[in-house]
Structure formats: structure tokens, C-alpha cells
Amino acid sequence: MLDIRWKAALYICALGIISLFLWLITSATTALIVFAIGLIFYFIRHLFWLNQLHNWLKKPELKTIPEGSGMWEDVFTALLHYERNNVQQQTALSAALERFELATAAMPDGLVILSASNAIEWCTPHAENQLSLNLSQDKNLPIVNLIRDSHFIAYLYNEQFDEPFKLTPIHQPERSLEIELIPLANQQKLLISRDMTQRDKVETMRRDFIANVSHELRTPLTVVGGFLETLSDMEGAIPANLKTYFTMMEDQTSRMRRIIEDLLTLSTLESKTESPDDHEINMASLLKSIQNDAIGLSQSLKKAPLQIHLHVDPILSIRGAQEELRSAFSNLVSNAVRYTLAREGTNNKSNDIFISWEPQNGEAVFSVRDTGIGIAQQHIDRLTERFYRVDRSRSRETGGTGLGLSIVKHILIRHQAKLEITSTLDVGSTFSVIFPKSRVVTTSQ
Hints:
The protein has helices at residues 4-25, 28-58, 71-106, 125-131, 135-138, 150-158, 197-233, 243-271, 283-301, 322-341, 377-380, 392-398, 404-414, and strands at 110-114, 120-123, 165-167, 177-183, 189-195, 279-281, 307-312, 316-320, 352-360, 363-370, 418-424, 428-435, 440-442. The chain is α+β, with helices and mostly antiparallel strands. It has four domains: 4-90; 107-195, Beta-Lactamase; 201-271, Helix Hairpins (Orthogonal Bundle); 279-442, Histidine kinase-like ATPase, C-terminal domain (Heat Shock Protein 90, 2-Layer Sandwich), CATH 3.30.565.10. The strands form three sheets. It has a five-stranded antiparallel β-sheet. A five-stranded mixed β-sheet has the order 7-9-10-12-11, with helices on one face. Strands 6-8-13 form a three-stranded antiparallel β-sheet. α1 (4-25) packs antiparallel against α2, α7 runs antiparallel to α8 and α10 packs antiparallel against α13.
């Protein structure tokens, strides 16, 4: 197929040759008139097809594209192919968009795309329902105009999206939402709203059930334990051949009491929504008391000698609930004592526990390092789960309930602190509690 420019050149050349031939056989005037008429015809023909193209562009449809003639046939044919490809691409894009909308509509979570200025660009029906939005009316409006929650606004503008945000909609106070923001390209954001109402209800039911059952079990266990202790103290009340069984029953009753007490403590911590006390704590005095308790515990276990070292920065304190933090620190230290003494072959290695309290990058760090049996890496992430045990038989030997680290985790969450654990098998473990700068207090001696 010849190029359009070549076709135009060929037409002009042919018209020129005909005019030159007429000049030779007639006159120059006739030749010029014919050449002019040919050019005018050529010009009028182009104007006609240009008008046809202009009219079609006002309402472009495949079935109404002009057929054209000459070089315009090539133009309209190319335009036909282009428009057909465009229609196919639009059809494919529409089908993909429809599938995407069907997929997002099927998701239980609400999705909202926010612009760089936090205006709503698009959202799913679930997001409209959960956040009381209307895309047809609210498109291009700032989302802070529609979700008027001061904590949400702070979460949005602080741009700290590591943790999801809990939101209770003003128009639906019975509903609980979890909001998560994900940064996208061009400073856009994807807002994901997840309805947590049912999960929170189930969690509340579970917490209430555990608390109620624990309360109900505590009384009969106290009675059983009391009778066992009374019988054990009465001379001749228990035959010699049955004393071993009574001792086992007393031990298991005591263990059940500890489990119930820990369950009640954990349930209480989980149900607390208010912030903990904000009193300054004398950490030097608190940790000295915990060290003395740990020494007493190690002596009561009557195993290998245990050295408990304490290093405290005397001018470093924090604000918080002293009894809660005492419980958390005591849990960590008592675990260190039990698992250090539980290590086999203690004669080949010194038994030492190192307790420290010191500043670090403006934060405050409480750490307990033991020389115990250590923990395999695959278990570390699950240590704070309820009743999770690395070694069930050994845990029972140490007298643990499986709830201590869960209690520690909830106490630290209430104090905006985090727990870091490092461990090496047969070398020991280090449990570090890191308190944020907002709770640190530095006093002068």
C-alpha cells in the first residue's frame, strides 16, 4: 500500500503531465485551465472528506465510519482499525473493572481510596455502610469532614500506620470498626475498615465465661484444699500408706488455685479500658524487693546455689501502676529462677541471674538475663499466648500455670511498653521490657 504522501504526489504529477500534453497540442491557456480545474477538484474532494470526518467525530461509532475513496479510504480504514482496537480495550477494561468491583463488593471489609489531600476518590458498598458514606455525594470530599472523630483525625495526619485504629462510628455506636491505612503511590492511601463487632462480642463472652467459671471454681477448691490441709495436720487421720496420695492431691489443688488466680488476674486486665495509674514509681526500691523475693524462691526450691545480681540506675524512674508492674517484673524474674534451676548439669555451669534497670536512647529498659535452659527460636513468638508451653512436662515441674507471660503482655500493653525476648538453647534467655519516653522520669539524687 502506497503512502498517502506518494498518492498525492502521483496525482499532482499525473495532472501536470496531462496539462503539459495539452499545452503541446493546444495552447498554454487550455493547459493552465485544466491544471487549475484539476487542483480545484482535488481541493474540493479533500474538503468533502474532511467534512465527513468532522461530522463522524461529533458522534464516533464503528458502524457509521465513512468508507472514503482514494487516499481517504486508507485514512478511514486506519481509523476503523484504531477505533475497533479502542472499543475492544474499553470492553476489556470495563470487564476487568466490573470483576474488580464484584470482588471488592464480595469482601467483608470496606475499602476507601483517599487522594493525597485525604479526599474520597472511591469506596466499596461495605465502606459506605460501615462509615456512613455515599460515594455519589461524598466523592472528592475530605474524609475528615465525614468521620468526625478526633482520634481518627490524629491517626490520619500523624501518618503512623504500623498499628490499626479502633473506631466506634458516631451514627452506629453499637458497632466496632478496625481501621487500617496503607500508603499507595502518588501519596494516595487505601483505607480498610473491618467490622470487629461480632469478634468483640465473642471475646467479651469468652472473657466473662472465664471470669465466671474461675469465680465458681475458686470456692469449692478452697473447701477441698482446706479439708486436705486439716486431714494432713491431724495426727493419725491419714494412714501412712495413703499420705503420698494426699500430698499429691494437695499439690494439684494448690496448682489449680494458682491457675484460677491467674485466670482472674488476666480477665481483670483484659476487661480494663481505663488507663493505669500514673504515679511515679521508686524503681530501685521495687526491684530490690523483687530481688529479695527471688532469693527466697530459689532457697525454697532447695536446688543448686543461685546468684541474683541487680543493677539499677538510681535516678531513673517511670510513671505507672506499681502493683501491676510489680506483678509483671516478678513473673519474669521468677521464671528466670525456675528455668535456671531446672537446667540439667548445673554443676558444670554457674547459676546466675542478672536484673538491670537502665536508660536506653531516652527510653527505660528493664531486663532479666538468666543462664537457664534457653528457648528454641520457633517458640519465642508464641510465648505470650495463654497456656502455651515449650515443654509441657518441664513446665509442670517448675510450677508454672502457662498464664504468666500472658499477664505480663497485657500489663505492658496498658503501659505502652513492649517485650523483647532473645534466647539460645543451653545458654540462657533475656527478657527485656522497653518503656516509652512518655513514661520515663529522671530524678536528681
